[in-house]
From TrEMBL, chains A, E:
Spans traversing the lipid bilayer: none
Pfam family, one: ABC_tran
Origin species: Nonomuraea antimicrobica
Any one GO molecular-function label of the UniProt entry: ATP binding
Descriptive protein name: ABC transporter ATP-binding protein
Domain of life of the native organism: Bacteria
From TrEMBL, chain C:
Lineage: Bacteria, Bacillati, Actinomycetota, Actinomycetes, Streptosporangiales
Subcellular location: Cell membrane
Main location, first listed in the record: membrane
Name used for this protein in its record: ABC transporter permease
Signal peptide: none
InterPro entries named among the record's database cross-references: MetI-like, MetI-like_sf
Transmembrane segments: 58-80, 92-114, 120-142, 180-207, 213-234
UniProtKB/TrEMBL annotation, chain D:
Similarity comment: Belongs to the binding-protein-dependent transport system permease family.
Name of the featured protein: ABC transporter permease
UniProt keyword Transmembrane present: yes
Signal sequence, start to end: none
Bilayer-crossing regions: 7-25, 69-90, 111-133, 178-203, 223-242
Organism of provenance: Nonomuraea antimicrobica
Coiled coil: none
PROSITE patterns for the chain: ABC_TM1
SUPFAM superfamilies on file: MetI-like
Every ABC transmembrane type-1 domain range: 62-246
Major location (coarse): membrane
């Protein structure tokens, strides 16, 4: 579904040249859920934006369903790390979530249903008529998630989507994403800096090295497919995988 | 559009709303234009240039402009043609509608002293500066050193008072107004320039129908004659289309409204303009005034 | 290569317009063809006029523009920052803003005379509005989190002004300055319609009154070129001042 | 504070500001700083204005002016918004049009008077040409800057959710540009009014400008100032209207939010 | 040092009235480090802004060193949750960190030293001359932290300061804050949604209930004062406290 081939990205600005990504090759099969972890500033966001067709690549290629990406592919939803800036302040929460659905020309009844469902799923039914700037950081982030969920995408890209919410909410949202992925078969690329989360959610965890960025490890998570916050996390294998990823990231950071 | 049914022609005349144009207003009020089957609308314009361009573009069938403006327009190849006299100087020193004024305590006593001074006129390179130069020349001074600046008539008295200029050239009602506020006339430039100077004229363009022109001329001549003979009615009509205060209207110097254009004086203005470099070529006045 | 592209982009549309003008123009007295205007342009402006009329006008323009900039920003910052001041002054400012410059001129002449200061002030009286309004709106819309950051770290007074308020409002202020540039040129012409005997604007008005239409259009052409030149200069300045703005993704231009 | 109260307070401050101006205008001539004959004291100007307001001619003139103003402003505003958004959104168009825009912008409307009279005669058309020409650029520049102010993350969001060009304009570009557009509208409203009056002054079509012209050439100083004051009052009214509009359409904007909050 | 007495905060905006905080009473002694946890949207940010004097309280009182807070007290530094918006985009990273020091009128040499030290501490020495928008989310957040650290405040308020950084960096930064707190005796109020972090860092952990917000529990953390990522976190008591707080938060969320 997603094929990333020898992707390289260099930011050029006057007086500063940053090789954000040296070379990344990575494939995500249809209906797969892959988590990406890596040290801060290693190029995770950059990778995501290249996949989303929002950023031109410097070298290499990205394909979605076999088609080279030049602009944002259809049926793809993105949750941005800068959740605050990705909500439109002139719209209410409801309108923000509904907008992409209108674009999809869904009938109003179906739209209402999707909006209500997704807002309920992220626990924001009460805030539907508030404007984003009347919400707390975590609530804003959940609006962005609700928007992506309501969109029912085929490909879902998420950039540290749970960074601003508390542990319990985070667990709920993790299960929401798992449910979505399982029920609708959404191909998901999930960037996080929480190793537990990566291991808990992913079928695979991709560890990026720090700059110059390459894929350090592409780890298959051999946990049972049915996951559960309590039992999965207490499996010994979970602890092993977690520890393994942790050491890898430490290695990644150490190398710089 | 002219010629509307039953012989009555609609006419739009572009005329500046000052004392000089009292006859056309008076004539309209007296029905002289209706007599000629002209349904006259008087549109106020800002000045000669606007009148000329309005006439050339066809918005006015007839309009009013000063002699210099018409001469310049003619020289630039515009098809303008005088149809009636407009307004003339009285030719009398001390009793004309145009004067050069100075402050009461000014060292300038005569027109000769104006040489080398700063004088305001409403428009440069027009009838004002040529005639003021003529005044100075006549008084035996050298006009070449005069610095003219442009100031609209209404703003001139204030500038004089504040000492921003040494002298101002103004026409009525500002002459009377300034004099009543203490200003002192030192030259009567229209009277100086030529005897019975024709200051402005009514004109039309080549596109206007000859019969209409004839009728307009007739009505205009009658109006001029009437106005010249009835100064009190002129003062009355001023109250209708200007905002001049009634006490000023009672005092102002009225110009002359002879029926005939003084061709010789127009030629004089043309010659003065040529000498002052406002016109580039000698102009044949009879082309302008058929 | 990129240079030539830029030149092409700069000139493509104007060239097209001149062609269009060629096709329709020249027929009427008031709209002479490009050839006649071009000839008049060469004859009129490549002469002492350039030094005697154009340069002093441009000097006054720049002086008025600079003064309007200082005044607009200087007033705009306090007005934008204080709701009370804004409520108090806005009607007064709106009052003056609605007065046409041509009728404001006599008043200015009363107060400062008829020489250069009057002309500069007339230019100021028109230029100041877009700068002032944009500054006010820019200051009002400053980011709240940044404002809080300043308060927390004790950034206040002159430092706050320089490092936060002016920088944060600069995208809007630059919009105002850009607007004011061309308004300044327009008012340069208007200011020279009064109490003048020289200057670019005066010359154009004189041409108009003397029915030297080709010359008049050549003057208008010169005004346009002047505006274009100044705006190109302005853009260089803007790219410097707002490099962070266009780089940061706060704006996409 | 409740909203009604806030409005009252604002009105109070505004009245105080105008009162201060009146006092100043009364004091300057009374103290002899300038000659009262050339700048009459405020009380005299207001008295004259009151007298003028009692005449139907003035209202007719004002109506004429406002008609030219409103039609011209509406035309200019719509044209400028549409072309501004198109130029701002279609890539490459901005670079292509930049030189022409910058060339045309500084051309004074008054210089177009001959052309206007040639094309339209003394009709409303001439006034409109001048009004539209002058106010068009004011809005256009503001729109161009406003369109450029779209946040890149918001823009990427719109792109990634497959918003069509039209939706992007409607839901993202337009709201972002709106604060700039409102400033543009305020600028253009004043410029349009000024040009409507100036056009009447110069071309002589009936209206407030023509009244001023007549009063000026008659040396009726208090009348001139009374008419100027009237122009200023119209300006205040227009601004109040635009501000009201702004509070409605920009309720989400930080600047307006802060105002409404207390 | 910090006394919060029956604080109440209601947001009023046309059409929406939110009682963000019902009543909070809380004291933080001089040199104490108190962590605040609570469900998303419960009013943590609101509390912090009231303490910082950035937001007028609706009822109750906040005192810093005995003085009622009306505006930002001196010598207080805040790390905002919206780290992206709290950096000046027209300044480089170095200038951003240096600005408050200039305001303090420190001599240039001392300023340079503090800036260099704090940037090194957060691992951003290389990025000193970049502009904030050229940095990744986590890097921006670290700039905001560096700025607060360099300021050498007496009171430090931090609002989810490590939300955007990876696990390893987070651990490093935690230790940085501990060091700062211990060496300089900085009174610290630390909002986080990471329960482990709260227990690891805090001398006390304050659990807020969800709306209407009150203090649900004020828990003393009776772990040894010397903390260490490996040993402290593996203490059985750590696990107990962690579990306790977790249950409390779950209760807090359940109540709504
Ligand atoms: N617009 C930009 N201009 C220049 N450099 C940039 C830009 N955006 C990112 N970078 C650089 O590219 C590198 C990778 O950034 P990116 O945002 O992809 O990191 P990240 O992995 O998402 O980090 P984090 O976990 O902190 O969000 C960083 O070194 C950053 O400084
Ligand atoms: N400016 C505002 N206007 C109106 N309501 C607001 C405003 N800011 C916050 N709120 C409301 O106040 C409540 C508390 O918000 P706050 O930001 O303090 O939560 P928080 O505990 O920081 O949450 P998070 O962990 O998600 O950041 C929320 O319900 C929010 O909707
Ligand atoms: Mg990132
Ligand atoms: Mg918060």
């Amino acid at each position: 579904m997603l094929e990333i081939h020898e992707l390289r990205k260099v930011y050029e600005s006057p007086g500063r040249r940053v090789e954000a990504i040296r070379s990344i090759t990575l494939g995500v099969g249809a209906g797969e859920l892959v988590c990406v972890v890596g040290p801060s500033g290693c190029g995770k966001t950059t990778l995501l934006r290249c996949v989303a067709g929002l950023l031109p690549v410097s070298e290499g290629q990205v394909r979605v369903s076999g088609v080279p990406v030049t602009g944002p592919p259809p049926d793809m939803a993105v949750v941005f790390q800068e959740y605050g800036r990705s909500l439109f302040p002139w719209m209410t929460v409801r309108q923000n979530v509904e907008l992409p659905l209108k674009e999809k020309r869904l009938p109003p009844a179906r739209r209402r249903e999707l909006v209500a469902d997704s807002l309920r799923a992220v626990g924001l039914s009460d805030a539907a008529d508030a404007h984003p700037w009347q919400l707390s950081g975590g609530m804003q982030q959940r609006v962005a998630i609700a928007r992506a969920v309501a969109y029912e995408p085929q490909v879902l890209l998420m950039d540290e989507p749970f960074a601003a919410v508390d542990a319990q909410t985070r667990a709920d949202l993790e299960d929401l994403i798992l449910r979505l992925w399982r029920d609708l078969g959404v191909t998901t690329l999930f960037v996080t800096h929480d190793i537990d989360e990566a291991v808990y959610l992913g079928q695979r965890v991709v560890v990026l090295s720090s700059s110059p960025t390459t894929v350090m490890e592409d780890l298959k998570i051999d946990l049972p497919p049915e996951r559960d916050q309590l039992t999965t996390r207490s499996l010994p294998r979970f602890g092993e995988l977690r520890g393994h990823v942790y050491r890898q990231i430490q290695r990644a950071r150490g190398e710089r | 559009a002219p010629n509307q049914g039953s012989g009555t022609s609609k006419v739009n005349a572009g005329v500046i709303a000052i004392v000089d144009t009292a006859p056309i207003h008076l004539g309209k009020a007296k029905g002289f234009f209706t007599e000629q089957q002209i349904d006259l609308t008087i549109t106020p314009v800002a000045g000669g240039a606007a009148a000329v361009s309005g006439a050339v573009s066809g918005q006015f069938q007839f309009a009013f402009a000063n002699t210099t403006s018409l001469l310049t327009a003619k020289q630039q190849g515009l098809d303008v043609k005088v149809v009636a006299n407009g307004v003339s100087s009285t030719g009398e020193q001390g009793n004309d509608f145009s004067a050069v004024l100075v402050k009461p305590d000014s060292p300038i006593r005569t027109a000769k002293d104006l040489a080398g001074k700063k004088i305001s006129v409403n428009q440069l390179k027009n009838i004002g500066d040529t005639t003021v130069r003529a005044s100075v020349r006549r008084a035996g001074g050298d006009p070449s050193g005069i610095e003219f600046v442009e100031l609209p008539f209404p703003d001139a008295p204030a500038a004089l008072q504040n000492g921003q200029v040494d002298a101002v050239w103004v026409v009525e009602p500002f002459v009377s107004q300034a004099i009543s506020q203490g200003a002192r006339p030192v030259a009567w430039n229209f009277a100086d320039a030529a005897p019975d100077l024709t200051v402005a004229m009514y004109f039309t363009t080549g596109t206007t129908d000859a019969d209409l022109t004839r009728r307009f001329t007739a009505a205009m001549r009658k109006s001029l004659e009437y106005a010249d003979a009835h100064p009190d009615e002129v003062r009355e009509v001023l109250k209708t289309y200007t905002e001049i205060a009634p006490e000023v209207i009672a005092k102002i110097y009225l110009p002359k409204w002879p029926v005939e254009v003084n061709r010789a004086s127009v030629q004089t203005v043309a010659d003065l303009a040529l000498a002052d470099g406002i016109l580039n070529d000698k102009i044949d006045v009879s082309a302008l005034i058929p | 290569m990129r240079g030539t592209m830029r030149v092409v982009r700069l000139l493509a549309l104007p060239a097209l317009l001149v062609l269009l003008w060629w096709a329709v123009g020249g027929g009427s007295f008031y709209l002479p063809g490009p050839a006649a205007v071009g000839r008049a342009f060469a004859e009129t402006w490549f002469s002492v006029r350039l030094v005697e009329d154009v340069l002093p006008s441009v000097g006054r323009l720049l002086a008025g523009y600079a003064l309007a900039g200082v005044l607009g920003v200087g007033l705009g910052v306090p007005i934008g920052s204080s709701r009370r001041l804004r409520a108090t002054l806005e009607p007064v400012l709106e009052f003056f803003r609605a007065i046409p410059p041509p009728v404001l001129v006599p008043l200015i002449m009363l107060l400062v005379g008829i020489d250069t200061p009057m002309k500069v002030l007339v230019i100021v009286s028109g230029c100041v509005w877009p700068i002032l309004l944009n500054t006010v709106e820019g200051v009002r819309a400053l980011d709240e989190v940044l404002a809080d950051t300043c308060r927390m770290y004790g950034v206040r007074g002159g430092s706050r002004l320089r490092r936060f308020v002016l920088r944060g409002a600069s995208p809007q202020i630059m919009t105002g300055l850009r607007q004011a540039l061309s308004i300044g040129i327009i008012l340069m012409v208007i200011s020279e319609m009064f109490a003048s005997s020289s200057g670019l604007g005066f010359t154009i008005v004189l041409f108009q009154r003397q029915f030297q239409i080709a010359e008049m259009w050549s003057g208008i052409l010169l005004l346009g070129l002047l505006g274009l030149g100044l705006s190109l200069l302005f853009r260089r300045l803007e790219r410097r001042v707002l490099s962070w703005y266009y780089g940061s993704g706060a704006a996409r231009a | 504070m409740i909203r009604g109260n806030g409005l009252l307070a604002r009105l109070g401050y505004g009245a105080a500001g105008l009162g201060g101006l009146l006092l100043l205008m009364e004091a300057v001539p009374r103290l002899g700083l300038v000659d009262a004959r050339f700048l009459p004291p405020a009380s005299e100007i207001l008295a004259t204005l009151a007298g003028e307001l009692a005449t139907p001619e003035l209202w007719i003139a004002l109506g004429e002016t406002l008609r030219g103003w409103a039609v011209g402003l509406a035309l200019a505003f719509c044209a400028a918004v549409v072309s501004g958004v198109v130029i701002g959104v279609v890539p490459g168009l901005r670079a292509l049009t930049n030189s022409t825009v910058e060339f045309l912008r500084p051309i004074p409307s008054v210089a177009l008077v001959p052309l206007a009279t040639l094309l339209f005669g003394p009709s409303l058309g001439s006034t409109l040409l001048l009004v539209v020409y002058a106010s068009f650029w004011q809005v256009l520049i503001q729109v161009l800057y406003g369109v450029a102010a779209v946040d890149s993350v918001a823009f990427d969001t719109a792109r990634s959710y497959g918003l069509s060009a039209w939706s992007r304009v409607r839901h993202l570009v337009w709201p972002t540009a709106l604060p700039y557009v409102m400033t543009g509208l305020r600028l253009a409203a004043a410029v349009a009014f000024i040009l409507a009056v100036t056009a009447e002054l110069v071309i002589g079509s009936p209206g407030l400008g023509a009244e001023i012209q007549v009063a000026q050439s008659s040396g009726a100083v208090p009348t001139v100032y009374a008419l100027i004051v009237l122009a200023g009052l119209v300006g205040i009214a227009v601004n109040a209207g635009v501000r009201l509009l702004e509070r409605r359409v920009l309720a989400w904007h930080p600047a307006v939010r802060a105002e409404a909050a207390s």
